């Protein structure tokens, strides 16, 4: 990655922001549309701060069944699933001391240690065993070898689903309880964002395995048509758009005129792009390293810049103030897009701007979450009007499906998550049926104090 | 089938016995071991008494997804799943009138109408919609064409599992609720025996789809190692061996000496079989149509004869009295096996006895339940000592697995049912988590009054 990208300043970020980074970069609502992942990427803080002492952990690999739900010969294939255990504080099986299980999400397990404080923070008080299980197809738990090879093959990537993943967790936990003679020890599963969905779904589907779940920042209602007619729209929209609102708010707070300039810029980009030579005008104006192929690349890039600046508003470099000072300082006479670029360049001062870093697309699309969003995690996330500074972008299922089919050859199943896990009338269902699920919102209620 | 087999008298049986026939012939514990199905078969009462008026039913076919849990190209195959609806008594969507859904089990749907009284009996009082859904791979709901072809192919039969089946039910019910604008109508799922397991599992896995379940005669505890160490053995053994005890009791009641002769006969068969020319001696003594290949065929045959006689003890033909009169009347001087044969022949009077009717094995093994028992429905059912008149037969997982592998090429997964559905500490789990599941025992608590 180009050293002039803002990610090099991550080492200076305090843990609370890293925590947020972890939650946010893991959040499905971080990717409000498929195209957005072509913009500037958030860097994982994998080599920065270690929230755990690696010496206390032992790593194991479980012989995991590829396909739990069918009995075809291929279903019986076994892959190695990684999990890690820390028994430093565990009170032991005879004392019925609890087992805290972190359910891995869409990252290698290594990345999650940096941002998951709950287990480490609470284990000493509860004398709990800490278990971290990696999600299938991530990190070192990839069936059939390298993730790149696996994701290219429509048959091998087809077993990459949430139902298989939580069945994996059930198998590992039951195996562990057997090995440790810990059948009577209560199990609490923990997860954040997508992992939070997994934790709540795990408690719903495997109540005989987990006694409780802590689901942090889990947008389980953001599926299918759980929309106005059910009265959940305002709730789910609020939760899932929280990131947009936060970014929006930070920039609005910094400068009202800056906010309005950004708000105006999207349609101006479209207008210029539609002119003869429009794309080359834009390429020049934004000093792109290579000519623009379409205006979306530019909009996605700028969107990620603002999001990033607001989210990781490092006090030592002040990206928000710097960008807005640039935008506002360009003067009233300057046109909207020139002001935008002045703001961008005031902070980053790059010789040219690489809107689509090589390898980013393939890494995103063939590294897990892109596939999951195109198979079952169909969250109809859109911005339907001009109430934020970001461009309106209504969710369009048809084009979403077309895009997924062109990428992966198979169509998403937009209703499967609500069919299998529920969602409609979830309050009613949870009250009547489930218990011991804590839903916390990671943005307002930091995960590390979630206990 | 040979017209001299006792099944031709079924037409005379009253409904209450037909009910029992349905429950019992559907019951997994009807097949205490794999070999038993090589004995005399119970005939389905498919053309005898109709418990419903077929004019009130409309038949539909749902475009069902072959594989709900994976996203391989093959997973997207669609098959036609049959379901039938009777809206004669339904109070309608606006009145939030309930929907009773019978979850098909290991029979064609047509067979089940004869024995399932609950829906028809209760629909008028609850103004309920009656829905009957056929289980995948049975009746007219077979993917890929004929069941014989499908079951020969290891890939096509591999999608034949309970998890897929209950996901099918969820899809059909949600589709129906959508079509009928009946989202607010409570759904109660109903099933007996294997279907009863499905009903209870459905309520556990899809609480957002079904508000309640009536699970009749469902041996959900008969899996894995839910055995003495957990304190469930006596309970589950009692439930699952109920059929054996009933047969046992009926014959013991008829004649104590008959009972004792049968009890002694099993070891005597083994003793004779182990002698030189033993099998041909047995073939002669029991007038078999073709020479015996092993003593198990004879024992299985006799076991099914006694079971059948006691279970369907038609008052007009009195099989129990006739068989026991023959056994007891042979005189004290006659050897045990001759007395047994005299009893058999007194009732059936066949020219020869066909212990392994052609086609029976393949029909059983390739028609569904044999496969299900060899994939996930691994119920460790055995008779561990001489407390019944039947031969002791401890369950041996190793030989069970070997037999399944030789038949189907894949190994059963004996722990999967308890992993996915639970079972250990089920009382605790049900009390803490589930609700609205009624478990009734079909043998003592007839299904038709189960409401």
Structure notes:
Chains A, B: Belongs to the peptidase S28 family. Chains A, B: This is Lysosomal Pro-X carboxypeptidase. Two copies of one chain form a homodimer. Helices cover 42% and strands 9% of the residues of chain A. The first copy, chain A, has 451 residues and is α/β, with parallel strands linked by helices. Chain A has a seven-stranded mixed beta sheet. In chain A, helix 6 links the parallel strand 5 and strand 6. The longest helix of chain A is centred in the middle third of the chain and has 18 residues, at 162-179. At the A-B interface, helix 5, helix 17 and helix 18 of A face helix 5, helix 17 and helix 18 of B.
Structural class of chain A, by secondary structure, is alpha/beta
Average pLDDT, all residues of chain A: 74
Topology order of chain A in helix (H) and strand (E) letters: HEEEHHEHHEHEHHHHHHHHHHHHE
* Rg measurement of chain A, Å: 23 Å
Count of helices of chain A?
18
Helix-residue proportion of chain A? 40-55%
Strand order of the largest sheet of chain A: 1-2-4-3-5-6-7
| Span of the ends, CA to CA of chain A | 37 Å
Total count of strands of chain A: 7
Q: How would you describe the shape of chain A?
A: elongated
Strand content of chain A: 5-15%
Give the biggest sheet of chain A.
7 strands, mixed
Oligomer designation: homodimer
Largest interface: A-B, 54 and 54 residues
- Give unreliable regions of chain A as ranges: 1-51, 227-242, 358-363, 441-451
Question: Any key phrases for this structure?
Answer:
homodimer, 451 residues, alpha/beta, seven-stranded mixed sheet, 9% strand, elongated, disordered N terminus, disordered C terminus
């Amino acid at each position: 990655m180009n050293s002039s990208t803002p990610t090099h300043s991550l080492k200076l970020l305090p843990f609370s922001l890293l925590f947020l980074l972890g939650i946010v970069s893991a959040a499905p609502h971080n990717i409000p549309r498929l195209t957005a992942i072509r913009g500037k990427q958030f860097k994982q803080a994998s080599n920065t701060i270690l929230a755990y002492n690696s010496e206390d952990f032992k790593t194991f690999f479980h012989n995991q069944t590829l396909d739990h739900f069918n009995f075809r010969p291929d279903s019986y294939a076994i892959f190695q699933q990684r999990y890690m255990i820390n028994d430093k504080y565990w009170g032991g099986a005879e004392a019925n001391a609890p087992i805290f299980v972190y359910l891995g999400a869409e990252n290698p397990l290594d990345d999650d240690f940096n941002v998951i404080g709950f287990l480490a923070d609470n284990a000493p008080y509860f004398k709990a065993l800490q278990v971290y299980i990696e999600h299938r197809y991530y990190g070192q738990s990839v069936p059939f070898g390298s993730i790149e090879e696996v994701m290219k093959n429509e048959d091998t990537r087809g077993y990459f689903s949430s139902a298989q993943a939580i069945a994996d967790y059930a198998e590992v936990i039951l195996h562990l309880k057997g090995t440790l003679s810990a059948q009577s020890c209560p199990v609490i599963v923990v997860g954040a964002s997508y992992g939070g969905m997994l934790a709540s779904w795990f408690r719903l589907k495997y109540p005989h395995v987990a006694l409780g779940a802590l689901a942090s920042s889990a947008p389980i209602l953001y599926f299918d048509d759980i929309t106005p007619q059910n009265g959940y729209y305002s709730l789910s929209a609020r939760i899932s758009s929280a990131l947009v609102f936060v970014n929006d708010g930070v920039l609005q707070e910094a400068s009202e005129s800056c906010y309005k300039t950004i708000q105006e810029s999207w349609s101006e980009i479209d207008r210029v792009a539609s002119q003869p030579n429009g794309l080359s005008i834009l390429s020049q104006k934004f000093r792109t390293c290579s000519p623009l192929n379409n205006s979306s690349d530019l909009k996605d890039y700028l969107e990620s810049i603002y999001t990033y600046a607001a989210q990781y508003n490092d006090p030592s470099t002040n990206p928000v103030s710097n960008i807005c000072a640039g935008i506002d300082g360009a003067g009233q006479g300057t046109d909207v897009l020139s002001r935008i670029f002045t703001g961008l360049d005031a902070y980053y001062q790059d010789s040219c701007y690489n809107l689509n870093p090589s390898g980013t697309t393939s890494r995103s699309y063939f590294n897990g979450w892109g596939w999951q969003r195109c198979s079952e995690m169909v969250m109809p996330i859109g911005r339907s009007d001009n109430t934020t500074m970001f461009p309106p972008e209504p969710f369009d299922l048809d084009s979403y499906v077309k895009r997924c089919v062109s990428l992966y050859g198979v169509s998403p199943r937009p209703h499967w998550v609500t069919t299998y896990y529920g969602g409609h009338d979830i309050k009613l269902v949870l009250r009547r049926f489930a218990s011991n699920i804590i839903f916390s919102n990671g943005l307002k209620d930091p995960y590390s104090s979630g206990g």
